[in-house]
Amino acid sequence: MAPSPVHLNRYAQQHGLPFQQVLDRMEHTVAHTDPQQLSEKERRYWEYTRLNLQRMRKWLKLYRPSPGALEVVQAIKTPILFLVISEDWCGDAAQVIPCLYKLIESNPVLDMRFIDRDQHLNIMDMFLTDGKRKIPIVVALDASGKELFRWGPRPKPAERVYLEARDAGLSNEAVQERLHGWYAKDRCQTVEQEFCSLFRTVGIPTASR
Question: Using an 8 Å Cβ cutoff, are 115 and 65 in contact?
């Protein structure tokens, strides 16, 4: 049975990993796994993880939040825990989550914890998208466990790119190429804008002006 919302914070703290531990796990998987010893499916997911690690490192190095975004984030005074439901092989997560991490890291009242979708289906099934277990999903929780907002599985413009390419009958490889090409051109700007908009619209208490 899934925990009630009031217990989601506790669940995330007990079962979730900080962002750095997720990176460490991915690095260990990539460095200490011999892909030749894996099945075809396992090797494919290992390759996704290897590619996603490169994507994450890139955005951690290149992305710098705008001054306006930092002003919004640093004004938040109430603790928020971001519960991220994902998997190491998820390409959208690799393009999005490092940007969110860089956006919130300057504010000590903001925290982030990761749980793997397939190991926590009871939680995943609380946050379905169109009835499906799409990832990544980011759930913002206040200190009482109340859901402030949820986001995912990708930025709205990226979803349009994905759907247009898929509906045009392109191969999955071509669809992914277009999708990740959009991420490369956008450079985390839409992720920044969408999360800052959510911070403003849900009435998160901020510093008095």
Answer: no
Contact yes or no for 17/25 (Cβ under 8 A): yes
pLDDT tens digits, 56-65: 999 999 999 9
Q: Is the peptide bond before 136 cis (omega within 30 degrees of 0)?
A: yes
Quote the tokens at residue 173: 């490889």
Query: What distance, in Å, lies between the first and last C-alpha atoms of the chain?
Result: 44
pTM: 0.93
According to CATH, the topology of domain 5-153+188-201 is Glutaredoxin (3.40.30)
- How far apart CA 114 and CA 118 sit, in angstroms, is 12
| All structural domains of the chain with their residue ranges | 5-153+188-201
